[in-house]
Amino acid sequence: MKRVALLLTILFAGCSRTPPLPSWGVVPDFTLTDQRARTFLSKDHLDGHIWVGDFIFTNCTGPCPRMSTQMNQVQKAVNDPSVRYVSFTIDPDRDTPEVLAAYGKRYKADPEAWFLLTGPKPELKKLNYDTFHLGDVGGTLEHSTRFVLVDRKARIRGFYDTSDPENIRKLIADIQTLLRDGS
Fold first, then answer.
1. Which residues is 89 bridged to in the sheet?
2. Which end of the chain is more exposed for a tag (fewer CB within 10 A), N or C?
């Protein structure tokens, strides 16, 4: 009887492993401008890295300050120099590199790991709407408040509603899973 119990324990212990994260598509290469006014080529800065993305604008009085504070908290909690963080503006007319740099400084964005990006509206719209399926970069400044997790192969692995603190904990856990699995 003890052998059966031991065997069942061993068998079911293997079943408690976290299921693999889903894949929601691949992020294509893109070119934008970072907060230092440098050309940002995703293939140079993100290929081979796990990264978290979001869409914000710097003069937002709604969810963007919370989201940027949470991005900083995720960066501190993960504490791995190989993980990157990317905030795309949805207001490229006002969010110049200089404005993004000041915003990044306010939220303690490490410019080597957390990139605040601007660029042409069509490119930002393509990423926000077509790639991440989060919304439009129009004139309304309405946008999703979700974070997006991307693995080392540019696959979208998860979406996390920032209005729920449990989702931020899940994002951190999922980053740790990707780091462990080498995904």
1. 56
2. N
At 92, which CATH number?
Answer: 3.40.30.10
CA gap 6, 86 in Å, rounded: 47
Which of 14-23, 84-93, 98-107 has the lowest average pLDDT?
Answer: 14-23
Closest by alpha carbon to 180, among 31, 20, 38, 9? 20
For residue 12, is it within any domain?
no
pLDDT in tens, 126-154: 888 788 777 655 554 455 778 999 999 99
In-domain check, residue 61: yes
Q: How far apart are the first and last CA of the chain?
A: 41
Determine the Cα–Cα distance for residues 6 and 92; give it in Å rounded to an integer.
61
CB contact set of 74 (below 8 Å; sequence gap of 6+): 52, 85, 147, 168, 171, 172, 175
Total number of domains constituting the chain:
1
- Token representation of residue 123: 């490119």
| Residue 43 lies in domain | 22-181
